[in-house]
Design goal:
Elements: H1 12-27, E1 32-35, H2 40-53, E2 57-63, H3 71-81, E3 86-90, H4 92-99, H5 105-128, E4 132-134, H6 139-146, H7 155-159, H8 163-166, E5 170-172, H9 180-189, H10 194-197, H11 217-234, E6 241-246, E7 251-255, E8 258-271, E9 279-280, H12 285-298, E10 302-307
Parallel strand pairs: 1-2, 1-4, 2-3, 4-5, 8-10
Antiparallel strand pairs: 6-8, 7-8, 8-9
The structure holds adenosine-5'-triphosphate.
Adenosine-5'-triphosphate binds next to α2 and β2.
Length: about 325
């Protein structure tokens, strides 16, 4: 098991050289593949892999219907500018059908994980002929999996699958010694634009992690629109992460002078260094009220907006 390289110990240039070399040695003349979510971890892995293998690294973004507004195109454009071609696989119908009728958070994560790895990405890897899979697992993912906090990471272990036996490919995890701050430093040294290496984390289950209760295309669209408002207004807040959550309960509101039994959005904005502990950002009250007004104005059906003032722990950063 690899140890930890702290941000203080990290020499990003040397780290990049070593990992590029290791990927080249492992893959040889073969083909490797990686799944790019647009988050900093998989973005850094994409660039390391591309530096090592050029076009012999195939990079795939899965359009699962749960991503933010314009996300697929934005990810494709960022990487096009860096000389990397990203394939977009449309699997929206598959994900929504796998999520239909599921309310329990753990079951949602499980359905998304299974659909992603076993069905959609498993199929893509098989068709690509790749024998190596590059993953952006970081040390915090491993800690959280061990502690039983999340079941999203190191999924093969959790699924009881040995990928080499099951799919015939091996996994390379070049970032397992780093935490988020170290990954950002490596991303910067690799030439990723700041809006990518400093991007707030976004969960694996995507917007489905921010919908309490049933996940439908309509409910995802509601949280997607609220997310767009929150992200636009808090982009320069300096916070670690900020998000909108759609609640299941409805509340009585008034719209156009009439009673409206409407939707509730919860806004969370966190200060944190590495996501292990987090505190609510002390946003100016004027920012909060402007954000609430904008959400109610632009997101159909929403009549109430709340701001979370709990801490992690006992909360987690996301809703599920
Ligand atoms: N829509 C997607 N398309 C392609 N790959 C994805 C997608 N969503 C998740 N992944 C893959 O699953 C991994 C785990 O996702 P998750 O969001 O939990 O990770 P993360 O540890 O925050 O990483 P990242 O910073 O890369 O998003 C990602 O690193 C990426 O490889």
């Amino acid at each position: 098991m690899a140890g930890e390289i702290t941000l203080q110990e990290l020499d990003a240039g040397k780290f990049i050289e070593e990992k590029v070399e290791a990927i080249r040695n492992m893959v040889g003349n073969g083909i490797a593949i990686n799944a790019l979510s647009g988050g900093v971890d998989s973005a850094v892995v994409t660039l390391l892999g591309h530096k090592a293998l050029g076009d012999r690294l195939k990079t795939v973004f899965v359009e699962n219907g749960l991503m933010r507004e314009g996300e697929a195109q934005q990810v494709v454009n960022w990487f096009k500018d860096l000389g990397v071609t990203v394939d977009v696989a449309d699997a929206r119908a598959e994900f929504f059908s796998a999520l239909a009728g599921i309310i329990d958070p753990e079951e949602k994560r499980e359905a998304i994980t299974q659909t992603f790895y076993r069905d959609v990405f498993g199929r893509i890897v098989k068709a690509s002929g790749a024998k190596y899979l590059l993953q952006g697992t970081i040390l915090t993912d491993i800690d959280e999996t061990k502690a039983g906090i999340k079941r999203q990471h190191n999924v093969f272990e959790q699924l009881g699958i040995n990928p080499e036996d099951a799919f015939g490919y091996r996994i390379l995890e070049p970032l397992v010694e780093l935490r988020k701050d170290g990954v950002r430093a490596v991303g910067k040294a690799l030439g990723l634009p700041e809006e990518v290496f400093n991007r707030p984390p976004f969960p694996g289950p995507a917007l489905a992690a921010r919908v309490i209760g049933a996940v439908t295309p309509e409910r995802i669209e509601t949280v997607r629109r609220a997310t767009a408002v929150v992200e636009t207004m808090l982009r320069d807040s300096g916070a670690f992460q900020y998000l909108a959550i759609l609640h299941e309960d409805r509340v009585t509101g008034i719209r156009d002078g009439k009673r409206d039994f409407g939707l509730q959005i919860e806004v969370r904005c966190w200060d944190s260094v590495d996501a292990r502990i987090a505190e609510p950002t002390q946003l100016p009250f004027a920012t909060l009220t402007r954000m609430a007004a904008e959400i109610v104005r632009t997101v159909p059906g929403v009549v109430s907006v709340t701001y979370n003032i709990g801490t992690k722990p006992p909360s987690t950063i996301e809703a599920i």
